[in-house]
Amino acid sequence: MKKNKLVKFFIFSGVALLFIAVAPLSAQTPSTDGAELAELTPPADEKTILDMVRAGGLAMIPLGMLSVAAVGFIAFNFYAIRRSSFINDSVIEELDEAVSKMDIDKARDICVTNPSPVTNTFNCGLSQIRGDKLFPVAIEKAFENASSKELTGAFVVVNYLSIIAALAPMVGLLGTVSGMVKAFNSIAAEGMGKPEILADNISEALITTASGMAIAIPAMFFFFFFRNRYSKIVAEVNLVLGRLYSDLLSTAEL
């Protein structure tokens, strides 16, 4: 289910980036004062981002894939890394009431019908209760194992942004090296008589570097943003689970 949503975010990101790529970079209207000058000057070709991508050469293909992935992961994490995705306050209140009455069957039903990292983890702890007997060590171990499984999955998706932020400048640098090699080869073969060929190669080198940095900077920013948000939510999840566990033990001792 989560993978399907992630694929949808990737498709949406690809369509959005394609729409931006085909839009003109600028649509300047000559001012009244410059109208006379504009009539005398031949109109310059309007370039789109897609034209810039073509000028960047083969290195722009992996950079384009990284940009789609970055936008997709950012959009998905805005959806997934939310407090409401981990903690449902109304469900926690129902669990509190069931635990205070030592109604374990009802607590299990609440966990099963309202799946979330908190309820899934708490249900694993409840599974260690046999009849009226509680085994605190077994319950704590079940909490540890279940919370590791439930909570680390969300951070894996956040961590992909860090990988993209590290890879994009490296791919851009590869394109830069390729462009400079072509520039020097053109000088060796043609001399300095055809500056347009040299300009195309240098343009390829600069575009790939700029594209790599343009992908890496927002990817790194949002990695730290979602990591901090995730850490805050995990701390609150642990507090909720600790309180439910303490209530369970104190109620069982009465």
UniProtKB/TrEMBL annotation:
Biological process according to GO: protein import
UniProt subcellular location: Cell membrane; Membrane
InterPro entries: ExbB/TolQ_transport, MotA_ExbB_proton_chnl
Domain of life, source organism: Bacteria
Regions that span the bilayer: 58-80, 151-174, 205-226
Family: Belongs to the exbB/tolQ family.
The protein's name: MotA/TolQ/ExbB proton channel family protein
Natural source organism: Rubellicoccus peritrichatus
